[in-house]
Amino acid sequence: MSDEIMYNQNDDNQCDNQQDDGIDRRGFLKCMAWAGTGVLLTMRAGVLESSAFGSVLDRGIRPAGDFSFAQVSDSHIGFSKPANTDVVGTFQEAVKRLDALPTKPDFVIHTGDISHLSKPEEFDTAQQVLRGSNIDRVFYVPGEHDVLTDDGKRYREQFARDSKGAGWYSFDHKGCHFIGLVNVMNLKAGGMGSLGPEQLEWLEKDLKGRSNSTPIVVFAHIPLWTVYPEWGWGTDDSAQALSHLKRFGSVTVLNGHIHQTLQKVEGNVTFHTACSTAFPQPKPGAAPSPGPMKVPAEQLRSMLGLTSVKFVRAGHSLAIIDSSLESKGAPTPAAAGGKITIDNFAFAPADVVVKPGATVTWINHDDIPHIIASRDRSFRSPVLDTDGEYSRAFSKPGAYEYFCSIHPHMTGKIVVRA
Q1: What is the pLDDT of residue 296?
Q2: Residue 349 DSSP label
Q3: First CA to last CA across the chain, in angstroms?
């Protein structure tokens, strides 16, 4: 069985305005303008067709169909690092292009990471930008950055008040059934996204009794297919969710999280991921970590457009690129204290040996926040933004395994011994 992957690449004119150390705001906006940072999806006879905002405008396309809606994702309001120091401006530009579409979409779907640090003012800013558009309705699902501090309570109150459980829900529109799923809660060490038994049971009941001919659109933040497990780009129990969708003739799954356009067709299911309006991330396995990319303007074009890449699925893995990650290294000798840096989405050193009573300090050097959490739930740090620190004393001998609760593929261990 073969699967087809579609990467977004574009051969249009070069973007200029680049600086030696990255892309400035004007250059970024110019690249956004032709590349598009959102997707317009048109339903025609039960089948969705997608096109980037830029191509719709630049080519004067007026999609014909039963209805259309738009997807935006990963606005990361609150991010201000070199990869993009004006995420509000680029989000506003995306919404501006949304308003300029030849045909007004019926609604917008935002597939998560609305905010960067789950702060109320970040949520408010994103909502104000979207309320300033011509779109009347916006449907949301949370990203991991939207549920950092309160298990998503603030997010649900503001964006999913009538939802079930941690924020899942469904609705019907002109003969099509839409399902918003949440796969960013209760992330496990070393794992990927997770839906959980309660949500899966709800999904099965939600679909029961619906005609096989009903077009289905599912949207979530983390991909519902395994893009790259080493970076947590996938959902552990997605196969169970997709099993409930096998009988339907047309199923489309939308997600964000990986900050790049990627498409895959498997049987009756078409998977689409959307670009971020904030910053790009590397292709799967093409860099040491999935962190924000600070790129010259002329390089941004290499991440956009459509290029077909085919591969044969082996076993249950759907990883696109195989890549060995750097060795975590051997444990350090027992010491009176320890310091662990967080850089390129990794703990260094990952394994530390300290004496009883020692204090271990974590320092975040990434542009993305992290949370230190023990597997046994005995300790948990606050959100550590760039240059943030967290310290904890370890008095009892033993092994303490921990991970980043936002990016669970990041793991480490503290060994306490005399």
Answers
A1: 56
A2: S
A3: 55
118 with 240, same domain?
yes
Of all residues in the chain, what percent carry a pLDDT higher than 70?
76
Q: Which domain holds residue 353?
A: 335-416
Q: DSSP assignment, residue 327?
A: P
Q: Are residues 246 and 139 in the same domain?
A: yes
DSSP output for 121-163: HHHHHHHHHHHTSS---EEE---GGGSSSSTTHHHHHHH-TT-
Is 321 domain-assigned? Answer: no
Question: Are 249 and 358 contained in the same domain?
Answer: no
pTM higher than 0.90 for the full model? no
Q: What is the pLDDT of residues 229-283, one digit of tens each?
A: 999 999 999 999 999 999 999 999 999 999 988 888 888 899 988 889 898 898 8
Q: Which pLDDT band holds residue 317 (cuts at 50, 70, 90)?
A: very low
- Give the lowest-confidence range in 53-57, 58-62, 191-195: 58-62
CA 343 to centroid of chain Cα atoms:
19
Structural domains of the chain, count = 2
In this prediction, residues 55-59 reach a mean pLDDT of 47
Are 225 and 258 part of one and the same domain? yes
State whether 343 and 304 are in the same domain: no
Q: Are residues 293 and 354 in the same domain?
A: no
* Residue 225, pLDDT above cutoff 70: yes
User: What pLDDT does 260 receive?
Assistant: 87
Residues 307 and 367 in one domain: no
pLDDT score of 12 more than 70: no
Is residue 326 in a domain?
A: no
- CATH number at 365 reads 2.60.40.420
Query: CB of 284 within 8 A of CB of 260?
Result: no
What integer pLDDT is reported at residue 164 of this predicted model? Answer: 96
Classified as helix, coil or strand, 406 is coil
